[in-house]
Amino acid sequence: MSDILNKKDIINLLPHREPMLLIDELRNIKKLSSATAIVNVKKDSFFVQGHFPGQPVMPGVLIVEAFGQAAAALTAHGIPKETYENKLVFLMSVEKAKFRNPVIPDCKLELNIEAIRSHGKVWKYKGEAFVSGKKMADAQWSATIVDRK
């Protein structure tokens, strides 16, 4: 398995599509354990125009969504294809989310994520978000794998 997944690889793992596919790359992959996701936050990202005009900030809820997508990609990359084929990963809970600094467009947001545990189809993760080494946010969350209807 590759140590780096590009956008095309991620599209093959996740059901998310533009504009809601937020992660551009997954690197430093340790199978079913941890990875670093890259989100290129651009001045033309879909949320910039309205959040907030003249002083754009990446919404915290989208940082949490990016954490979730990174975790889903890490998990799908590590399990057999037939286990995630025709499945969806749904966020179940978000805990201890803290937004420490605003994420301003034209930056590279790095999400360091870690799988804490899994029990059946339920997984628990934690993550920290950084821009140029400065912590922007952190959270813990749970997700589950369900059949696609």
Features:
149 residues, alpha+beta, Thiol Ester Dehydrase, Chain A, six-stranded antiparallel β-sheet, 6 strands
Walk me through what this model shows:
With 149 residues, this protein is of the alpha+beta class. The protein has one domain: Thiol Ester Dehydrase, Chain A. 20% of the residues lie in helices and 43% in strands. It has three helices and six strands; from the N terminus they run H-E-E-H-H-E-E-E-E. A six-stranded antiparallel sheet has the order 1-2-4-5-6-3, covered by helices on one side. The chain is globular, with a radius of gyration of 15 Å. The model has no long low-confidence stretch (mean pLDDT 94).
H-E order: HEEHHEEEE
The total number of structural domains is: 1
Oligomerization? single chain
Specify the CATH homologous superfamily: Hotdog Thioesterase
CATH architecture group name: Roll
Q: Report the CATH topology name.
A: Thiol Ester Dehydrase, Chain A
Which spans have pLDDT < 50 for at least 5 consecutive residues? none
- What topology, given as strand order, has the largest sheet? 1-2-4-5-6-3
Shape category:
globular
Question: What's the rounded overall pLDDT mean?
Answer: 94
Strand content: 35-45%
* CATH hierarchy class name: Alpha Beta
Can I get a quick summary?
By secondary structure, this protein is of the alpha+beta class.
Topology:
Elements: H1 7-13, E1 25-30, E2 34-41, H2 60-78, H3 81-84, E3 87-99, E4 107-119, E5 122-131, E6 134-147
Antiparallel strand pairs: 1-2, 2-4, 3-6, 4-5, 5-6
